[in-house]
Amino acid sequence: MSKRRHIVVLAALLLAGCAREQRNFREATPSNETGEGVQMSDIAPGHSAERKPNANPYEDSAYSVSQGKQLYEMYNCVGCHAHGGGGIGPPLLDAKWIYGSEPQNIYETIVEGRPNGMPSFRGKIPESQLWEIVAYVRAMSGQLPKDVSPGREDHMYAKRPEASTPKEHPPQTNVPPGQKEK
Amino acid sequence: MKRRSSFWLVVLCCGLACLVSCHGNQSALDSKGLQAARIERLWWLMFSIVVAVYLVVLGWFGTAVLRSRTRQSVQEIPPQVNVEADRRMTVVVAWAIGLTVVLLFVMLTASVRTGHAIANLSSKNPVTIDVIGHQWWWEVRYEATQADQTVVTANEIHVPVGQPVVIKTSSVDVIHSFWAPNLHGKRDLIPGYQNAVWLQADQPGTYRGQCAEFCGHQHAHMAFFVVAEPLEKFNAWLAQQVSTPAPPSDQVSKQGEQVFLSHTCVMCHTVRGNGSGGKLGPDLTHIASRMTIAAGTLPNNRGNLAGWILDSQSIKPGNKMPPNPLKPDDLNALLEYLETLK
Amino acid sequence: MTPTEQSAVASAPDIDRLANLERIWKDPSGFWGWFTHVNHRSIGKRYMVTAFAFFLAGGVLAALMRIQLSRPENHFLGPDLYNQIFTTHGSTMMFLFAVPMMFEALSVYLVPLMVGNRNICFPRLNAYSYYVYLAGGLLLYAGLFINTGPDAGWFAYVPLSGPDFTPGKRSDIWAQMITFTELSALAVAVEVIITTFKLRAPGMSLNRIPLFVWAQAIVAFMVIFAMPAVMLSSTMLLMDRTVNTHFFNPAEGGDAILYQHLFWFFGHPEVYIIFIPGTGIVSTIISTFSRRRIFGYTAILLSMVGTAFVGFGLWVHHMFATGLPQMGESFFTAASLMVVIASGTQVFCWLVTMWTGKVVLKTPMLFALAFFFVFVMGGLTGVLMASVPVDLQIHDTFFIVAHFHYVLIGGAVFPLFGALYYWMPKITGRMLSETAGKWHFWLFFIGFNMTFFPMHILGLRGMPRRVYTYSSSMHWASLNMLASAGAVFMTAAVLIFIANFFWHQKKGELAGNNPWGAATLEWATSSPPPVYNFAELPTVNGRDALWDALPNQPIVEGLDEDCRQVLVTRVMDADPDHRDEFPEATPIPFIAAIATSGFFISTIFTAKAFFPTIIVVGIVLLIWYWPRRQPSLRRKEREIWEH
Q1: What is the pTM of this model?
Q2: Measured between CB atoms, which of B6, B100, B220 is closest to C468?
Q3: What is the domain partition of chain B in residue ranges?
Q4: Which of A96, C200, C439, C481 lies in disulfide reach of C204, CB 3.0 to 4.6 Å?
Q5: ipTM for this model
Q6: How distant, in Å, are the alpha carbons of A124, B127, B172, C504 from that of C150?
């Protein structure tokens, strides 16, 4: 029994290692075309229907998150959100999410745009890059594991790197009732 | 016996080496510029000295083994020494060391003198080109006193023949190295530093260069071309590059421009005149005038451009340009538009 | 009687005495006993086997690279995997094979035998250094197998290897592997120096120390001065990546070139650390197989010392393309040319030794002689690179790849194979097959030249290094195919050697004490030596111990033989100084290595592990070094009390 457990643990470690170091250059990306829409509220009449939260597989890959960080800068998200501290746009470092903090919420925000100034990037940013940016945005408030989050960048030191950022606890809207919050 | 035949093999190899190395694009021994010519002269001097020394050492070695070789076993030969012979050989070794020192000094002098000559190429009003390294392409800027006269292009450098040109190098990400062997040795592009290298092309032609410092996934596909042309042609090229392309006139090209502006292209690329301003990828204002795309990876023609736009990751996996699944009509229009950007 | 003859003839009380010596000096056998060994030959054999295994692993990686490069635009390996493979190949060969084999394995096994003593000094540290080395190697390969292999080159330049451009843990694994292997090398360096200077047989004054031992001692000094530089640069890289320091961040006052300086300050002496033991081996083999003492002992010794000193002043020649000031670069050109004088002197002395001796062409001698073809060519291409203008053309091309393989394989691997054929009879007691040895030699020699000579031409024709593929329009394809074909010959040669190794253990001719009629002290005892190395500890009458021995050469007597007592001698003339007791077998070094590995590996993943794990290491070290009176003193005190 203990030998089998050792193998399972070893396999889990190996897979964990694999996922963090994945560098996918061409792949089908998760799109949000689930047809179910994105739940924005955690209350509903009667019982809520069962739904599985969409996970973002890029959140396991340090390379993807680091790409997201580069894209955040290069697509000029810093223009409104600075390095997460906000300015014209709201800050992204904190636990306050107007439109939800789950990956698919953030994806919708970027793709659709939001009232009061968030542009719609539909058709302008390819799917895979969108999800990488989503992963990075979540890393900014410490939602991602520390070994996946980026370290300090080769630029002027604007804020603590994501790997050293403490985890914020935004309210979760898209988790079915009864399930543990992440 | 075996030693002598290996000796001739070595000579043959050296001869072949000379033959096959002498010509070819991107060859250090096919100098087409002043600096590369100086280096090549130094190379041949040092190479001949070094080959001569090697042959002498091999000869000495071969003779030593041949004359001292014995078929007896070790146990049959008690160790012994001829003190008188050793004293004579001390003189021989001393002469050999002395000759080594002299030859090294000759090479040192030649090397330092060539180094001085290379470093002292200069001119009053040289063409100044900024080469900025990106992962995995070359941003090329011809600075001018007026901002609207600045030329921004990528992966292709034009220089006037016979005039010194200064290339100022820097990098936005990791260390790269600018190397056009037909014209000069390499110079690193180091973030946080600005280096300068002076070149002069002595013959008109197109010279390939390649990144020579490991810079990540697509270091292998980061090439560029230096086009040396007579001064008038160079000035004409520069004027063409400064100009803003005329807006597209026919329907398909107009549609192509709309595709460019409404899809992902505009996030990363700039085409002066149509309102785009992306700084992430190469400037495309005069894309149709370039010989290659993807940093020297593919010749610039319609088919390659289509493949690059649709799925660059299969050509240069890991590069920063994502795949762009466009509808066939849109792709066709976009290509038409890009071909007008001469 | 000479020591050799003495050990052949043992009378009855001698047999009892030898059995007693065996009992005292033997480390426990069996699975659990393996972790407690402190005998230098046991640890030395482990080093050899492990380093050779890493050599094979690095060779497999090289074969994969050659397959990928055999054709233009090949799709055998993608860029990411290729980058991991060439980085791991370089790191394996430099950190896990070359230094551990040339310096650590050979010196740990041979130096105590050559100076005529029973064990290396600091035996527990010796065992600890092996386990730490093994852990570092396993860390690197575990990383490679889970896609976390380093991919920024064996030198891992910043900013590419920094936090921005190598996300994840890849560079961290590389940086910590450095820490493991350098700690191991530093420990062995200390042991080699002390053993060489304090544990020699009486009569072995400084000018009678065998050149191989001198080579290892000189290398040990180089290790002590060079390794800290790379430990510093790799730790600074690790800190940049894990705890947000800015050593190499230009935007905050750091400098990418600082990394290069620190790394190459180590990196250049490193290649001499690999090459100087090779010269020690060649001096030994040429002397034995020319049947005369080496010509120019003092000149060769001074050359090795000169190489060691001057070797610390060359590092900038790896950085000529970075745009450093021209006058500074010229200084390094001069120094790089100057070091040729030292290597040249050694080559001339060897040539004279052969010219005036009688050359017996056995397999070890063939490998030593290949040095003249291969290393000399590599050294001469190095002269070409010493010149800044020429280097600006050939730097970072396949010309450099050809150069360093010629000097490293010619200066280390060929002599290493020679050393293995030469000393294997001493290690195992049986001779390796001469026929297989000659096949091994010629296949390896031909294959090596087939692979690496065309690379000179490829470099001159513009092919840069570290490229995972190349365009067919560059006309590099045929030379690359030739290079890849040569790899097949080299693989065959190494397989023949491995087969020879396994064959000889059963079927090899029995070696006897001194099958080569050699001069150094390890040949004065049986093959393989007993656990106590020498039945009678020898003394020495000249530079070539066995050739210069008197008919009634004295032996060392008077050491206590009921404990592990050794004779410590003085530095200059090896006059007996005092007696010391060496530790017995203990598992503490292994436990300390586990604690150290835990400290190094856990701090890659989280800085929070730093204090808990270092406290554990501290506790284990306390237990190790807790002062204890030596067992013999305790025994004597007991006897006094009882009386």
Answers
A1: 0.93
A2: B220
A3: 25-119, 127-242, 251-340
A4: C200
A5: 0.92
A6: 34, 41, 23, 38
